Amino acid sequence: MYPRNAREAWVPLLLQHENLGGCIARLEQSGEPLKVLGIGSGTGIEDCKLITRLLEMYANIHITVIEPNDGHIKIYQDTASSTENLRKAIWDWREQRWDEYLGDRRAKNDSSKFHVITSIHSTYYLEGGLDASIDGIVDCLHEDGVLFICTCSKDDAIGKLSNWPWNKYYTGPLFIPPNIRKSLERRGLLCKEAALVEYCDVTNCFQRDSGSNTRHLIDFLTHVVDFQESAPSNVYNAFIERLHEPGMTFRDNERIFIDVTGDVIIAKKK
């Protein structure tokens, strides 16, 4: 679905962060687990790349996965249980929205903290507004922890697609990196930004019945779960026509690609 080297580039960005090495060194001395929180982890295709690398650095890892879509979290669970290396980690599966998870924390007076928090193309769907969502994320972050957020750029194809008519099906706030960074900095976090240049093969999107991978890709591009199955024909056709417009896609031999460059924010507490 994605050029492999580009899509995996985000993992070294996080692994090389100065907080992570020191954090693992301290945990090795105490014997405590490295706690990882995935917010809106989807099918786990991105999280698993990080967890695999983290397990090479430190074997004692506890992972909490927040994902409200039952189909997506089932795929992630199947991957975690069927992959030998991933079975070494301890998993806590939460089939719920972010605001529901925060509600559970408050109800249980749970003040546990996470050393690594990731939100990869999922902040768009957080309920309750930007500041309330960021408050919850910061509250979950350990003093020595690292927060990694990846969103679409307002100038890439996904940013352009977000203003199209099918977005009436999509009710979550579209958080953009400048607003996220300002919200984090108001709470005293130190932020760094980077761009992940990615080009996604969308050739199969032009075939309405083209398999689960393509369905997930279309959901990603439109911010609408099960868009291919649920959208009326005229709306789906409008999406395809939009992909054909100048500046949206380009051809390389027989394949069609779209720019899905992501904006990355890596943050830590001062």
List keywords for this structure.
single chain, 270 residues, three-stranded antiparallel β-sheet, 12 helices, 10 strands
SSE layout and pairings?
Elements: H1 4-7, H2 10-15, H3 18-30, E1 34-39, H4 47-57, E2 61-66, H5 70-82, E3 90-94, H6 98-107, E4 114-120, H7 130-140, E5 141-152, H8 157-161, H9 177-186, E6 189-196, E7 199-201, H10 212-222, H11 227-230, H12 233-244, E8 249-252, E9 255-259, E10 262-269
Parallel strand pairs: 1-2, 1-4, 2-3, 4-5
Antiparallel strand pairs: 5-10, 6-10, 7-9, 8-9
Helix pairs in contact: 7-9
Describe this structure in words.
This protein is an alpha/beta fold and 270 residues long. 41% of the residues lie in helices and 24% in strands. The chain is built from twelve helices and ten strands. It has a seven-stranded mixed sheet with strand order 3-2-1-4-5-10-6, with helices on both faces. A three-stranded antiparallel sheet has the order 7-9-8, with no helix packed on it. Helix 7 links the parallel strand 4 and strand 5. Helix 7 packs across helix 9. The chain starts with a helix and ends with a strand.
